[in-house]
Amino acid sequence: MKEQHFSLPQEHSDYEELVYLRKILLLRLIHVLFAFGVSCLILFVETVYEFTESRIYLTVGFKVSLIPIAIILFKVDRVGGSLVLSLIFGILFTLGLGAMLGSLFSVCWKPVTAFVLLSAFVTVHFALFLYAAFEKDVYNVTKGLLWVLELSIVNFIIQIFYFRAERFYLLIIAFMFGMFGAFSVYHAKMISQGKFRVIPRERYVLGALSVYIDFTLIKLFIIQKCCKKRKEDEEQSTLIKE
User: Fold this and answer.
1) What ranges do the domains of the chain cover?
2) Can you spell out the DSSP letters for 36-103?
3) N or C: which end of the chain has fewer CB within 10 A?
4) Is the pTM of this model over 0.85?
5) Rounded to an integer, what distance in angstroms lies between the CA atom of residue 231 and that of residue 238?
């Protein structure tokens, strides 16, 4: 594969660049609003109906359904993308993979299993990311990660506050997002200097998926801890009343 550099064409006018940026910003706003809407819907269901552990798996199913939307739309500025197609794909993912994950986690979701799975996915993610960095192929990897973060950051924060996470977890999350933000600023500067080349699609899709799964597992871990604490608080308040 020939080495390509990410740069705008020489004849690219200021007006065309403005239209291009507006298109990207609009699509990213749609992603955030969609993620926000899905989160509100899930939280509404969990509030109206009795909260059970099985609904955590339903939540994971919805979050996983956002993965194909990220895959299709995070590279829209290069190949174009269909929002309708990605939404249909997302619904199919919710029905299929969401059900599979629900049955899987209901059988094997124990603290030790959670720790092993979380460690494995985090390791895979950083291995892929470091491999890309050493190859100087970080442009599309980072781009994929940032688009996936845009899809998940809103519902991630909403759910953390909804489940009354402890400050320790919030500090970890803030640090992670801060790290990605700092890297994205540095990376934008490198791209503007044409120092990174475009990489094969498979590698940056894998990187995006791995980090998304990292966040999903971290979310599950936090939710489980918070649910346990909430149940203990309820039991304690019941005992006090008695």
Assistant:
1) 14-241
2) HHHHHHHHHHHHHSPP-THHHHHHHHHHHHHHHHHHHHTTHHHH---HHHHHHHHHHHHHHHHHHHHH
3) C
4) no
5) 11
